[in-house]
Each structure stands twice: as C-alpha cells, then as structure tokens.
Amino acid sequence: MKAKPYRQACTSCRRILGGCLLGLLILGGFWQASASEDFESLVQIVRSGASENVLLAYVNSSPVNYALTVDEILYLSDLGLSAEAITAIHAHHGPDTGVAESSSLPDVAAVLEQAGVASASVAPEIPASDYYAAPPLETVPPVAPEVVQEIVVEPPVVAAPPADTADYSTFYDSLSPYGNWINVDNEWCWQPTAVLVDAAWSPYCQRGRWVYTDCGWAWQSSYSWGWAPFHYGRWAHHSRHGWIWRPDHVWGPAWVCWRSSEAAIGWAPLPPETACDANFGLCYRGRAVSVGFDFGLGWAAFTFVAFEHFCEPGVGRHRFPQCEKIFRVAPIMQNHLAYQQGHIHNSGPEPERITTFTHQEIRPVKIVDQNIRAGEPVSRARLSGSTLAMYRPFVKPTARETPRQVVAQRETLENTRREATRNNDVLHAYREAPVVRGEQVRGLQSRGGQPVGVVPPAISVAPDTRWHEQQRLAEEASARQQEAQRHQAEELIQRQNAERQQAQEQARQRTLAEQQHREADVARQQEEQKRTAEMARQQDAQRQAQETARQQERQREVDAAARVAEEQRQTLRVQREAEESEARRQQETVARVQQENAAATRTREVVRPQPEGLQGYGNPALTGAASSRGYNSRGQ
C-alpha cells in the first residue's frame, strides 16, 4: 500500500520528463532552417509505392547525410513508414558527419512514442476477394482513373479552416500531402500512402487505439491526418486500388461494424453506402437494415483481437493473422450506431465484458473539441485524464467538387500545352517564311507581275523590314493563339460551371430520392405498424376469449369440487351422527350394566350369611342364584 503513491509519482515524473524531452526535440527541429538533404527524393520514393526494402537500399547506397528533424520523422511516419525504417534512415550519415553532431540529433523512438505511434506487426497479405462476402461494392472503372499526387519537399503544415468554411475542399487540401486522390466511378476518393507502403494496411487497425467515451467507443488515431478519414466518410476495399476513402460531412466516433465471440472482438469499416438516420438508425442504401445484416463484409475486412488487448495502444499489433474461423462463430452486434443527444453513439462491446478480461475498470471519458483557430496547425487527438481532445469541425454538406490540386494540375498542363503550341507556331512561321517568299518570287517571275491572291512579298525590302514583317506575322499568330486560349478558358469555365450545376442538381436529385425513400419507408413502417396493431388487437381478443373460457372452466371445476366437498361433508356428518348414536347406545348399555352391577353389589352387601348346615351353601353358583331368586321374590 505504501509503494503505490511512489509508483504514481514516478509515472508523473516520467511523463513530465518525456514532455520536456519532446519539447526539446521539437525546438531542435525548429532550429534547423531547412529540410534535410535529399528529403524530397525520400518522399517521392515513398509516395511512388516502393517498399521499405527498396527505400532502404536507396538510402544505403546514397552518400547523403539524412539528419531528419522532428517534423520530418513524424511526416514519414504519417506516410506509413515503420519506426524501424525511419530509424535506419535517420542513422545513415555521410562521411563528413561527426559523432558530436550525430549525438545531438533527435531520437526517433522518443519522438514516435510521444506522438503515440507504436510499431505494428507485419500481417500476411490477404486476397481482395475475401474482403466481401458478396461481390465487391466497387466496380473496376473502364479506364485508368486519374491519380493526383502532390510532392511535398518540406513536412506539410495542415491548417484549420475558419469555423464556417469547412466543406469537402477541406478534406482535399488537408489529405493531399499524405496520399493520392483517385477518381473512381466519377467519385473522388482518397488513398493514404500507407496503403502503398504496407500491403497489409487496413483502416481502424494500425497506429491507433479504442477509447470508451461519452459517444461510445471512439478511435484515437496516431496519424496527423486521422481526424478526417476515421470519423467522416466511409472506407471501401477496391479490387484494383485496395483501401480507399470516400468523404462525407457527418462526424462519428468510428464508422465500423462489430462482431464478437466468447474470447475475441472484431470490427470492420462500414461501406460507403451506409448511413445513420436519426429515426431509423443504421441504413444501407437508404433503407433500414434488418437483424443479422452483415453489409456484405467478408472475414478479411475484419480485425479480430483478444478481449484483453482491445484497449491497448497499437491494437493492430495483436491482430489475429487468420480470423476466418473466428468470423464464422462471431455473430454481428445489432443497432450499435444511433443518434443520442445530437451525436452519433457507437455502442460496440459492453465495457463490463472488457473489464472481465482486462480486470481494469473502464470509465467513459468526455470528447472535447480542440481549441484550434483558423490558420493554426491541426494536431493529433490527445487523451488527458478524463477528456479526449479531438478536431471535429462542422462540415457543410455542399456539392463534391474536384480537388484543387487536380484543377491546378490541369491548368498547369493546359498552360504548358498552350505555350508549346504558341512556340511551335512561331517557330513554324519562321521556318516557313523562306519557302513562302520563294513561292511568291517564282509566281511573280512566271506571270510577269503580282501573283493572284498573294500579298506582295517583302523580298524587295531591306532585311530589317523583312524581320519586322516576320515579327508582325508572329504577333498576329500570337494574338490569334491568345484569342483561342481565351475562348478555351471561357469554354472551360462554362464547362466547369455546367459540371458544378450538374453536380448540384445530382445532389439535389439524390437528396430528393433519399427523401422519397425515407417517406416510402415511413409509410411502409406505418402500414406495418397498423397491421401489427390490428394483429395485436385480434390476438388480444383471442387471448381474452381464451381467458374467459379458461375462467369459466375453472369456475365449473371449482363448483364441481365444491359439490363433491359438500357431499363428502354430508357423508361425514351422517357417519359422525351414526357413530355418535352408536357411542351413546354403547354408553347407555355400559351405564345400564354398571347400574346392574352396582345394584347387584348392593344386594350382596345386605344379604345375611346362611348357616353352615344349609344345603348348597358351599356352592357359590347355587348360593348366588338362590340368593338372587330369593331377593327378587321378595322384591328387594
């Protein structure tokens, strides 16, 4: 009992020292004025989808000194590199680096530990066909999708937008440094670079933990970008690209589906067609789900861990590599997502059941909004005492537009093409000028005068005049090209406006269709409620009739039993009277006999003794009989 406060004090000291160490490391990172040497090449290799072995081979063969700062370490971790790979890169120094300089560099393990990043175990790669029990939700597009990559030389600083301006463009701008936007079936989806680095990566598995809050079970991610894909939108496993994320404007603690067995708990990301309605709860493609609905998710989409490891940081390290057998015996938890007090509540497993395995009491913590002003960097979710600080802005449900990076890339490509076309036209004009002049000269000489339909050539003028003429022709060509470009820009703007209006109209049509579906569902449910109420009324009437019949039957049985009891009482009364009569008769007989005996006794007492010489005196029988006769004859 005395050692507990000491251990708590030691834990507090370690936290304070760890915070000081992280502060010093961050200050050390800020002291460096520029990014590490060749850091751009590292980012390009990682975002190209190369494995860690290829990246480490490049690093080992490079003479560059990779002295990573704190921000660069965290950025590489957000891209999906493991702690071991980042440590190997950070430990590679060029020949000019001294021991003193190397010792002053930040510690990778300490930086990642303070950021809540835990190393994940390597899981075997799973075939894409095992992610869904039914055919995949996503179809392979007929053409190669457009992939937008944005290479960031220095670690990005994702800034929070103003309070009233958060929309889908906020997702586009914030997530572009950490992944690629892919156009799949005319829908812009985001894929983290971690999917390319780790083939076994899956949502709600690596770099995070489960925390029980006032909104149910919430996923606390260690990624810098984890505030968006794990709380807004849905995940889907594409047959070609792997895990991709579709944006949405509704915030939730975690959009997952739960399964549990006797000793294991599992969860999987809900598909994009899933939503949570305030009246009906979970819905799939606009319809309320029934009991046992599995959303078409196969066993490979689930992450199963033992109950005792469920609340540990880096829960993905304890994932079962093959969970097909567990999946078959683990039923789905129904109605785990619902609206409570204006927020979506994720029930999930009961805290008491987790406590049974972990032997630790689980108390809900309160989710609070991070106090981040517009323009300030977005930080990771922080668990402190009884609160969990998260960045969860209110996202406006506007029409989904094209990411700005895509528009910028298209404009850059279009401007490059226009510039090349203009240069080619000018160069072609310069190259074709001698040929045109030769044809004009030959036509003038052959016809003896000016050729028909030909502008008088400039061969008779001085060379500088010809140069001005060529310059004028080039300027006219440039003016025509600029006019064409202006028309193309106007057409592009009109096309974009039309696309935007079309997208808004499609969104309105989808909203109207969803409203109609909801109204139809409400009408169907009302009709079902009426049928249910009528059936309940009929069943109540039948139950009442049956109950009346049973009561009448019981009354008849009670009456019959009462009659039998009355008959038995009458019989017993008759028997008792007969017995009493017989007892009285016996008593009278006994009394009479007793009276006779008493009389006889009195008679014997008054009779005087006879002389000895009398005949028969010695015979008691004769004497008694004679005495009785004599007594009776005398009347005494």
Task: Please describe what this structure looks like.
With 636 residues, the chain is of the alpha+beta class. Among the domains are: 1-119, no CATH class; 144-398, no CATH class. The protein contains 14 helices and 18 strands. The strands form 7 sheets. The protein has a 3-stranded antiparallel β-sheet. A 3-stranded antiparallel β-sheet has the order 8-9-13. It has a 3-stranded antiparallel β-sheet with strand order 10-11-12, with helices on one face. A hairpin with a 2-residue loop joins strand 11 (281-284) and strand 12. Helix 12 packs antiparallel against helix 13 (463-606). The longest helix has 144 residues, at 463-606. The radius of gyration is 51 Å and the shape is elongated. The relative contact order is 0.07.
The largest sheet is: 3 strands, antiparallel
How much strand? 5-15%
Q: Which percent bin holds the helix content?
A: 40-55%
Q: Got a strand count? A: 18
Spans where pLDDT lies below 50 across 5 or more residues:
1-14, 16-34, 94-102, 135-143, 449-464
Class computed from helices, strands and strand pairing: alpha+beta
User: In angstroms, what is the radius of gyration?
Assistant: 51 Å
Span of the ends, CA to CA: 113 Å
Number of helices: 14
User: Outline, from the CA principal axes?
Assistant: elongated
Mean pLDDT: 76
Strand order of the largest sheet: 1-2-3
